[in-house]
Amino acid sequence: MSSKNIAVISFDVWDTLLELKPFHIKIAEKISLYTSREYGKVYHELEENYRILKDYRRRNMLRFDDIVNHCLEISSKNLGISVEVIRKAVTKSVLEVDVKGLVIYGVEKILANLINSGKKLVTTGNLIFWPGSYNRILLERAGLADYFTLQIYADEVKVSKPNKNIFLMICKQLNVLPENVVHVGDNKVEDFDGALSAGMNAIWINPSMSDTLSEEGEGVAIKSIKYLMEALNKIESKH
């Protein structure tokens, strides 16, 4: 009986390592402050704008070679505020948000355990209206950045998940085969299907599932990241 040798584990960032909702709340608070608009209305509009942009990304309607600026242009029209106000609100939020409150429970312990077991860790992230450098700052502020050998973001490499090429950059930069990499994320299409299309292993974090862990096609689905080690053991034991 043989087993897979998983050398590298790639993570999506938002709603995999960091919780997105409290960060959006902070951005909405800042926009409300700068525009004197009612906070609840701003937050609702921000969430709807995010949904629209994700749909555009899914349908390949964004300029992937300039994705942040394109998303800012669309957001400015959707929200009825200037690009500069959005930039200022996001920048202030990156610097002021309670970043420890963004970290999903148990994540740091899991990352430490993976490092101690000899794995290399990577982030592979899509973007909407802030650059990958802001994710880097947030992970640094949260005390998580040093766990990662490599961070890859869509604006920096001009390609977005689920395009297999963003996943294959991990292999090229770390000199590993796709079969020796696992990608973990909460989006079925972008994270799970995208990683599988690159020949990698994949773990889908699906909070709506009834079981804590189950096989999902060629990969594994888990209810939350706390079941990650169990999922990795399942993948590594496959032959």
What would a concise description of this structure say?
This protein is of the alpha/beta class. Helix content is 49%, strand content 13%. It has helices at 20-35, 39-58, 67-79, 83-96, 107-116, 132-141, 154-157, 164-174, 188-197, 228-236; strands spanning 8-11, 120-125, 150-153, 181-185, 201-205, 213-216, 219-222.
Structure description:
This protein is of the alpha/beta class and 239 residues long. The chain folds into 2 domains: 8-18 and 103-237, Rossmann fold, CATH 3.40.50.1000; 20-99, DNA polymerase, domain 1 (Orthogonal Bundle). It has 10 helices and 7 strands. It has helices spanning 20-35, 39-58, 67-79, 83-96, 107-116, 132-141, 154-157, 164-174, 188-197, 228-236, and strands spanning 8-11, 120-125, 150-153, 181-185, 201-205, 213-216, 219-222. Helix 1 packs across helix 2 (39-58), helix 1 crosses helix 4 and helix 2 (39-58) crosses helix 3 (67-79). It is globular, with a radius of gyration of 18 Å. The model has no long low-confidence stretch (mean pLDDT 96).
